[in-house]
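Curious: why this fold?
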Amino acid sequence: MNRTMRERVLLIDRDRLFGAALTTLLAGDMVVVGVFAAADAALSELDAGEEPDFILVDPGPVSPGERGNILARLRSAAPRAGLVVLSNDTGAQALQASLRHGVDAHLAKSASLEMVRRTLHLVRLGQSVYPAQATGLWGDLVLTTSRSPGASHLSPREMQILACLLGGQSNKAIARRLSITESTVKMHFKNVMRKIKAANRTQAAVWAIDNGIAPLVA
């Protein structure tokens, strides 16, 4: 049977009405495979084998530590999915958490449907989408998407991996620094090598330097 495969989206939001509304709005060109009120339920679905193309999550009114924990667990459970925070909180702490844990995009819930669709399209192309105020928060995260056109096709997490590589860190040290598993680090390296057409870590390091990524030391 011939049919166009639609991208699969998993939603996590305590606001059931918002989740239901977004499900209806996205239904024309995507398949919402689950709407969950809590991250734990969504993580159980991911552990059971669900492989969404995108995860849209509002971590909710939680502590900074819990927010980071939620995002880190989702990123680790679905490393290939586009991870998008859709939240009313676009403050500095929330943005830092998203940047630190490899979130591909961070949007306000007030964003239009067209903006959400455009953001998902950019994430699909390997780009990151953040509010303008995030520019001043790169800091020690060494995310240089806005300054380095050559690195624009890498995700924030992939740029972090390259920054750690330049800092001389082993896979184990990178995993510890970024709160992910060594296997996830290896997967990110494999994706980076493919994207930048590097044959080994040395070539990857040279590419990173040429594209303005600074080292992130342990």
